Amino acid sequence: MEVNRSSAPAVQDIVIPKFPAFSMEVLSGGIPVYFIRYGALPVVEVQWVFRAGHCYESQTGIAAMTARMLTEGTKKKNSVAIANYLDEYGAFIQANAGYEATTFTLSTLTRHLAPTFALLNEIIQEATLPEQEFKIEKSRALQNFEIEEQKTEFVARRRFIQTLFPAPHPYGSITDKAAIEKFELEQLRRYHKSHLQPSNGFIIIAGEFEPETFLELLSAQGIDTTHYQPVDAAQPPPPIRAQATRINETIPGRMQSSLRVGHYALPRKHPDYHAIKFATMLLGGYFGARLMQNIREEKGYTYGIYARWNAMLHDGYFGIGTDVANEYVEDTLVEIRKEINRMATDPFTDEELTMAKNYYCGKVLSNRETPSQIADILKNIILQEIDLDDLERGNQIIQALTAKDIMDISAKYLIAENLITVVAGG
Amino acid sequence: MQIEFSTHYLANGLKIIIQEDHSVGKAVVDVLYKVGARDEDASRTGFAHLFEHLMFSGSLNVAEYDQHVQRIGGENNAFTTNDITNYYISCPANQIETAFWLESDRMLSLDFQQDKLDVQKSVVCEEFKQRYLNQPYGDLQLLLRPLHYTTHPYRWNTIGMELAHIEVVTLAEVQDFFFKHYAPNNATLIVVGAVHTPQVLDLAEKWFGSIPKRNVAPHIYPQEPPQTEARSLTVHRPVPQSVILKAYHIPARYDNAYYAADMVTDILSGSKSARLFQRMVKELQIATAVNAYTSWLLDPGMIIIEGRLAPGKTVQEYEAALDAVIASLTDISQAELGRMQNKIDALTTFNLTTLMNRATFFAFYDAFDQPELINTLGTHYRQLQPQDVSQAAAKYLRPENCSTLYYLPDGSQS
């Protein structure tokens, strides 16, 4: 019997499961520890999150560079010994610095949690930041950025963010060659002592593990009695607003240009956040979005174009990015403006909205697959100072949005006249 | 850590791999086609990858592919290599029938249209520029292949040799390619996630069962003759630092001798404590970065050692230092090997963490008919002794077996 291929199978209801259960304990010295028991594999991830990053630096990139140096040697082990120790257990430690936090992430098989956490603690507390390794890492970072700064994407991104948030605003911090050249070892050692210490961090553990076992490990390392004294939140930066403008950065020999186009947005806690984030997705947040369909699928100008709504603790920005051949630049900019304007005037059909809402639900489901993803979501809730209910409320708000709501919110927050445009390329 | 999976076949030759995992309400439906850049005509390179784009431009009964995936809360993408083209949809598990409808329809037949071909040609050309021509060092691999391979189709990269090949593709050629390579008897359907095996088999029969077997082009490729003397090529580009790329011929992925060759790269650069970094970056400071890795190729592939020269150092100094590190591979300790074996074992478990990873690894391993490697990969490395790895190094890392690309800044001396 020949199957009927002419129509799609029925779409089933998409259910977003509740955010997984987690628990929290405050150690006797005050350090908060979050426990997420989740996942079917015998693996566990520990995220040690410090109040350090661009919003806690007096010099761009210090947090990231200090974090990088911590794994270069401790009182008891040099960098080779540290690498060998991790390899022996098949474990990984990575450091990542952003605006509000610097996170050390340990990934290990559950059965090796004790020795690998002991090493992570040793790295945090007993790092020596050795001189020879510092010289080499600084030199390597300079070489890397010498190459990065030739990329149209990097040049456009840097110019765009620094126009929106000029120095000394931390949201405009981009670690580049100039920033790296200024690093001095003594600064990093001081930053280690002031910011990358247990007193300034909270801990998330996610995966397969026994909470009691982990609490014992913390106790054995003396972390349970460490006095919790997080570094004061940096003063909220003053709101400064650059005017709409067009900036060209020429990079000789490039056949494509990177475009970064956007303007100011809202801080994360703003009640309109969920609605405008969804509207931005409709504009350029997935393959079916208007920008992608127009500029890639209809015109073939690009391999990819996206729009993002970035909301941080104190401020935010809306940005569109793409790489196009030089001869398509002006036309692409015209089309981008057209699509932004159309968000306020041209309603989405019921079918389009349903598709986008379903896609959005699927994305939420996807983002909750692994213990590591759950840990990341939890960390961001804590750092952005929002409550867990906000996630569920957000999903409900989005499901209830009508085509008119999308037009209204777009008219309010996506404004072509305010666009700051950066073109970096040939 | 072992995961259980089952293997089945439809009458038309479609292979099916199913792995049930009910921990999250998701599923991944992946279709592997055993066609890649190596199946291309030498005057139409980049074709298989262009074709991958066209698979999203509409099939017989489905005018537009992506909206259906989005409607079920799913995501999809694909990639092409020299050997395979792999398509995947990730979605809530209760939606998989839509995935079966979509994948089976485009296995049945594409909706071949000139205007769609024209748009995707343009998109692919922009991709070529964005990834390979517009980036510093972007054309490294494009230059390496024709140097290292004289005969085998690996002499060109998946993106193609040049934009011109993509620009002249005709609709007739696209149709021809489809019927020669896209067939149930040249494909594997991989389903992982919160699914039930009997239901998956029913859906497979329902949607894929009626697609006829096709006369697929045989998987026979001109063999690359052994390389008997060192080769090199020097190019100048507007880049800030010199890169030296060395490629060495190694056995095929499906040859058991592959594992010793791959382990050579782990001993060389599988860790920050490994030899290349320690000797060349840290001690001698001749390079600012250096890596050894194997290529993801099925037929006899490559070990590549790629290094970036430190400012003020010469190519000769770099090569002398590298030669010394390679020579040191006669002596590998059990402890050194043991650490890399432990690392690989742990990674085998970490690689199972997401459904997408699992589906992709099933695809890679099934490309040479060894899906069980998803569980057993670590054992092939565990079986190696230090002398196996030393012997592999001596056998493959020889000048006569090597092609070197000197990629230098404009205006610098060779």
Key features of this structure:
heterodimer; A: 426 residues; alpha+beta; five-stranded mixed sheet; 11 strands; globular; B: 414 residues; six-stranded mixed sheet
Secondary structure elements and pairings:
The complex is a heterodimer of chains A (426) and B (414).
Chain A: E1 23-26, E2 32-37, E3 43-50, H1 62-70, H2 79-89, E4 92-97, E5 102-109, H3 113-126, H4 131-148, H5 152-164, H6 177-181, H7 185-195, E6 201-207, H8 211-220, E7 245-250, E8 256-264, H9 273-284, H10 290-298, E9 302-311, E10 316-325, H11 329-345, H12 350-366, H13 371-383, H14 389-400, H15 403-413, E11 420-425
Helix pairs in contact in A: 1-7, 9-15, 10-11, 11-15
Chain B: E1 6-9, E2 15-20, E3 26-33, H1 47-54, H2 65-71, E4 75-80, E5 85-92, H3 96-108, H4 114-133, H5 140-148, H6 163-167, H7 171-181, E6 187-193, H8 197-208, E7 231-237, E8 243-249, H9 258-269, H10 275-283, E9 287-294, E10 302-309, H11 315-327, H12 334-350, H13 355-366, H14 373-382, H15 386-396, E11 402-409
Parallel strand pairs in B: 2-6, 7-11
Antiparallel strand pairs in B: 1-2, 3-5, 3-6, 4-5, 8-10, 8-11, 9-10
Helix pairs in contact in B: 1-4, 3-8, 9-15, 10-11, 12-14
Question: What would you note in describing this structure?
Answer:
The complex is a heterodimer of chains A (426) and B (414). In chain A, 43% of the residues lie in helices and 19% in strands. Chain A contains 15 helices and eleven strands. A six-stranded mixed beta sheet of chain A has the order 1-2-6-3-5-4, with helices on both faces. In chain A, strands 7-11-8-10-9 form a five-stranded mixed beta sheet, sandwiched between helices. In chain A, a hairpin with a 5-residue loop joins strand 1 and strand 2. By secondary structure, chain B is α+β, with helices and mostly antiparallel strands. Chain B is 41% helix and 19% strand. In chain B, strands 1-2-6-3-5-4 form a six-stranded mixed beta sheet, with helices on both faces. In chain B, strand 1 and strand 2 form a beta hairpin. At the A-B interface, helix 2, strand 5, helix 4, helix 10 and strand 10 of A face helix 2, strand 5, helix 3, helix 4 and helix 10 of B.
